[in-house]
Amino acid sequence: MPRLLPPVGPQRTLALAQLSNSVGDGAYYVTSALYFTHVVGLAPARIGLGLTVAWAVGSVVGVPLGRVADRRGPRGTAVLLALATGAAVASFLVVRGFLPFLVAACLYAIAQSGLAAARQALLAGLVSEQERTGLLAHLQSTLNAGLALGAALGGLAVSYGTGSAYRTVFAADAASFLLCAFLLSRLPAVAPVTVTRGAGFAVLRDRPYAVVTLLNAVLLLRMPLLSLGLPLWTTERTDAPEWLVSVLFVFNTGAVMLFQVRTARSVRGLATATRAIRRSGVLALATCVVFAFSAGQSPAAAVAVLVAGSVLLVAAEMLQSAGSWQIGFDLAPPGRIGEYQGFFGTGTTIARTLGPLVLTGLLTGLGALGWVLLGGLFLAASTALSPATRWAAGTRRDDAPASTARRARDHSAPGWPSNPNPSGSPATRC
What we know:
The protein is an all-alpha fold. The chain folds into two domains: 1-185, Growth Hormone, Chain: A (Up-down Bundle), CATH 1.20.1250.20; 203-415, MFS general substrate transporter like domains (Growth Hormone, Chain: A, Up-down Bundle). The protein has helices spanning 10-39, 44-72, 74-91, 98-126, 129-160, 163-185, 207-219, 222-237, 244-264, 270-292, 299-330, 337-344, 346-366, 368-395, 404-410. The radius of gyration is 21 Å and the shape is globular. The relative contact order is 0.15.
């Protein structure tokens, strides 16, 4: 079984920073809806509206904050944004009413989006290209471990059901970002880059990268599928017991924690990354077809089918994650990691914003046919990502220095250009 934490050094510190606030976030995710309704006194519709607006704002601001990290230095920017995130979480303790909640939610989303981009730039400056995907796999495993532990702590608060219990969870989440900021401040500094005047936000004019980001956003619909689509399907369209929803979530979290690092070892460059994503698309299609067969079955048969589909889903998720990490980094030009990662991260926001609408329309509206259509969407996006990535890599060919050994190692498949991100400089979200 692979180690949860990477080797001692900057990689270990990044993982501990990830772990520190993922515990707080896990507790927050479990309790936030109940806190905002029972303690703050907001209607569920207003909570949904506020969070949708907040994450839409955060996705827009992520690119300029990533650019700030590139130009001012990613370590200092990440520390400040971790502190800002903690302050935003703490502000939820005193908000009463929709407008203060909306302001606090926007500050939280902005700080989180910027922190994600700044940490990616910091990682790129501290870790060699060959080690990035492996480290990101470790961070993903650490994230899942922290979320699972935090969710258990949040469950205790829910069992008490008091305002004090909920406020304790929010205070702990805020403190976790303070610890994250401290750990990030202990990392070596990464020198800021000099950006040509008038260059503006180059990523906004990079059409190949935009296409890759959009296709990746489609594949990220797997996130609301696990948290929303599958629970709704299980409880409304099958005879499986409702407790299976939490069991499947725990299974997914544990499997990623244990096997993400091992899965990521097969990804070593753009060619292997797109191959992993194509395989994930095939598995995602198979997942959806299996889930479709769970309707109309006896309770025991429905449980067996849903468990089988969940095994396929987590395998597809781990392959897609490893491939997308490699692509997002390799296609980002040297010196613009933060800016490009800020843009690439909008795919997550798009999936989380539009995913509930897409999934409820397909699964609750069309039933088994909706699952087949969703699986076809995953397969089409994963297949299209390969030529889109090749197109994006080709636009960077003129900037890549000759490095025969790197070309042979990272892009041995025919038709692939030389390494599109050959940064030798030593550089993700808490």
